[in-house]
Design brief:
Distance between the termini: 94 Å
Order of helices and strands: HEEHHEHEEHEHHEHEHHEHH
Largest sheet: 7 strands, mixed
Number of helices: 12
Strand order of the largest sheet: 3-4-5-6-7-8-9
Strand content: 5-15%
Number of strands: 9
Shape: globular
Helix content: 25-40%
């Protein structure tokens, strides 16, 4: 009886019991509603395979796709005071920070890295919208300054990927002070004669748009990204008029001269390399390596072999 109870019955139950399926295997596209398998979506850089809608992508995943072999070195960013204003709304600010760090696995809302993109060495910074809406706080200001200083030190171009809901309200005036601080950091690059490229992703709003996100030498945006200072709902309520179709989206801004390019995420790497190598006076990027010639197959060896045969 013990053998049947302890072995046979659990074995039968395990064969016929319902297996639990992880909840994160499928993602629903917010535009067309298509259910996308997580591996397929990740391989497509978080772009819907049905309607081409560009979903949010974390800075780390973006850098793994951008840098050669997914290899990059993180640039250390000085940490600011954790709660300088002792802010508390519905929750304490430190508690919100801990929840965001646990949910994203990142320390803050911006990641700074250095590496090679098609053998073109760059410094890159990217905001994480999943971390408190990518809001611009003191750490983000420090990150942009650290990225600019590293670029000037190494004489490298800086590429910045913006994604933010604006300034971080829990840091008040200290957050707003990051606007002039980051503007000065961008000026450091211009004085050093180094390219500063901005890629605006969905959404880029508020004080971020009013400072470093619109100061690039070249302004590129992903398709259908919301780029604005005040959102369309606020503007409609203020002026009490219906806004044009696609107002404040990247395609609309491109048509009205506020952007240089609107580029699909899968084509962005090649476009960045082309622009950066043009601005830095480098030859076109090498897309692949030819294998080393085998011994005795070089032109000189072939000529010598033919001479020996004729002689």
């Amino acid at each position: 009886m013990n053998w049947i109870t302890n072995y046979v019955r659990p074995r039968i139950n395990s064969l016929f019991s319902r297996r639990e399926v992880p909840e994160n295997l499928w993602t629903k596209c917010s535009e067309c509603g298509t259910m996308l398998f997580h591996r397929e979506l990740s391989e497509n850089l978080n772009v819907c395979t049905n309607c081409d809608h560009h979903m949010a992508i974390t800075p780390r995943a973006r850098f793994e796709a951008l840098f050669d072999g997914g290899a990059f070195a993180e640039v250390q960013v000085p940490g600011p005071l954790p709660d300088a204003l002792h802010c508390r709304d519905q929750r304490k600010y430190p508690d919100r920070m801990k929840a965001a760090q646990k949910g994203t696995g990142e320390f803050e809302a911006m990641l700074v890295a250095e590496g090679e993109v098609d053998r073109t060495r760059i410094v890159a910074a990217a905001q994480d919208f999943s971390f408190m809406g990518g809001s611009m706080g003191m750490y983000v200001g420090n990150a942009i300054i650290a990225a600019a200083e590293r670029a000037v030190e190494r004489k490298l171009p800086l590429v910045l990927f913006s994604a933010a809901g604006g300034a971080r309200m829990q840091e008040g005036i200290l957050s707003l002070m990051q606007m002039p601080r980051t503007t000065v950091a961008v000026q450091m690059l211009k004085e050093a004669g180094l390219p500063y490229i901005v890629v605006l992703t969905h959404p880029t709003t508020g004080g971020v748009t009013a400072s470093y996100a619109m100061l690039g030498d070249v302004q590129i945006a992903e398709p259908n990204a919301l780029i604005c200072f005040a959102g369309p709902r606020v503007i409609e309520q203020t002026i009490r008029e219906t806004l044009p179709e696609g107002f404040q989206r990247s395609e609309y801004l491109l048509d009205h001269g506020m952007l240089d390019r609107v580029t699909h995420r899968k084509q962005l790497k090649d476009e960045l390399v082309t622009i950066l190598r043009m601005l830095t006076g480098q030859p076109a990027a090498v897309k692949g390596d030819l294998p080393a010639p085998e011994a005795g197959t070089a032109p000189e060896a072939a000529d010598a072999k033919a001479a020996d045969k004729n002689g």
